[in-house]
UniProtKB/TrEMBL annotation:
CDD domains, per database record: GT4_WbuB-like
Glycosyltransferase subfamily 4-like N-terminal domain location: 17-186
Matches recorded under InterPro entries: Glyco_trans_4-like_N, Glycosyltransferase_grp1
Chain ranges passing through the membrane: 83-102, 108-126
Protein name per UniProt: Glycosyltransferase family 4 protein
Organism listed in the record: Flavivirga amylovorans
Keywords of this entry: Membrane, Transmembrane, Transmembrane helix
Length: 387
């Protein structure tokens, strides 16, 4: 049995795509006869507050299903203040350094990036000819931050670029969740060993109802983080509610603004459901006609994991984010495309969706596509061969 360590910023009981992705990776490796351990902060995402049961602790270790999880201290914050966010990352980096100093580290380590500083700390202190470092790159920072308007091309940005390049240089293998990420890495380090590792889900979906009827308004759902990048608040303002009803699940920094918008504008046909568990969410999603996957701006390297999760559920999608995700929707015929940032085009696209487009057979076709092309276990088998 080979020891492997995963270093990540997100892990259950935290919710969201990043947490689910790393959990399934850990669970999958354990089933492939790896002895898996995980290092992660004390759970705090997305609230920015340490969860009940973990407060007041510097370290909390537990073992479940033969996976050992070490939760380390972090100065938790989800503030928009860049200094506070930096302090949060530095605090976790300090905890990592402390852990590396006093504990034996396996010869194979998977490091999640971003955050860049956390990945840098791990790569810097663990790089060794005797140890294999695998960098799992899910977003291209700092490029994504620049496209989101979080950064400007100044000294700080140049420093983050140097950190990014250092991480790539000293990783033995780089996993990229998109072809754009792989291409970017190869443009910097042409000989670097890379592997396309999509965020495929690993769950048994609920069955599609055989008595689905489509009456009244089109029921569109968004489920996920209510963050700046997703732009759900602006989406709520721009949608044409003549023929649709918009349902929202999730939490994040825009939650209060969205709830206030709904309260002050009862004519907008929006229903906010709050945050629910993943299993309950999957059951709830089956009652909607289709889902929307938006990004406020096109983000280089980004492919929302919702694409693969909703495909597994057989849920048609409206993709409103551009980039590689748009290409996947088109290639596998998973739904409709609206030009990113163009809300008139989005409303026009929605208006053209017919009841016949949402029949049961379409959902069943999407599920078959997901089973054939978005298989978590097949992908993991290929990854294990490289590890």
């Amino acid at each position: 049995m080979k020891d492997i360590l995963i270093i990540t910023n997100y892990f259950p009981p935290e919710t969201g795509a990043a947490s689910n992705r790393i959990f399934h990776l850990a669970e999958g490796l354990q089933k492939h006869n790896f002895k898996v351990s995980v290092i992660t902060p004390l759970p705090n995402y997305p609230t920015g507050k340490i969860f009940e049961g973990y407060k007041g602790k510097f370290k909390y270790s537990s073992t479940k299903n033969d996976i050992t999880v070490h939760r380390l201290w972090i100065y938790a914050s989800n503030s928009k203040n860049k200094l506070l966010r930096l302090i949060a990352m530095l605090s976790y980096s300090f905890s990592l350094y402390w852990f590396f100093t006093w504990n034996k580290i396996p010869k194979t380590v998977i490091i999640q990036s971003p955050p860049l500083l956390v990945a840098f700390t791990s790569v810097f202190f663990l790089r060794s000819k005797k140890r294999k470092l695998i960098l799992n790159v899910s977003d291209l920072w700092p490029i994504a931050g620049l496209e989101l308007g979080a950064f400007k091309k100044n000294f700080s940005y140049k420093l983050l670029e140097k950190i990014e390049h250092f991480n790539y240089k000293h990783a033995d293998l780089i996993l990229g969740q998109s072809n754009e990420i792989i291409s970017h890495v190869k443009s910097l380090f042409p000989k670097k060993d890379t592997f396309l590792y999509r965020n495929f889900p690993d769950f048994i979906p609920p069955k599609i109802s055989k008595t689905v009827t489509r009456t009244g308004k089109l029921k569109i759902v968004y489920a996920g983080l209510l963050g700046i990048a997703q732009g759900i608040y602006k989406l709520c303002q721009e949608l044409d509610y003549t023929y649709i009803q918009f349902h929202i699940y999730g939490t994040g920094v825009e939650q209060d603004k969205i709830q206030s918008l709904i309260s002050n504008n009862p004519e907008l046909d929006i229903i906010y459901h709050g945050e629910v568990s993943r299993d309950k969410l999957h059951e709830a999603l089956m009652s909607y006609d289709l889902t929307i996957i938006p990004l406020l701006n096109r983000i280089h390297g980004s492919v929302p994991s919702k694409i693969f999760e909703y495909a597994r559920l057989g849920l048609p999608m409206i993709y409103f984010g551009g980039g590689e995700g748009e290409k996947i929707i088109k290639q596998y015929n998973l739904g409709w495309i609206a030009k990113v940032g163009d809300y008139n085009n989005l409303n026009a696209t929605i208006s053209r969706i017919k009841p016949s487009d949402l029949e049961l057979k379409n959902g069943e076709r999407i599920i078959k596509t997901a089973i054939e092309y978005f298989d978590f276990n097949k992908q993991l088998d290929l990854l294990v061969e490289k590890i």
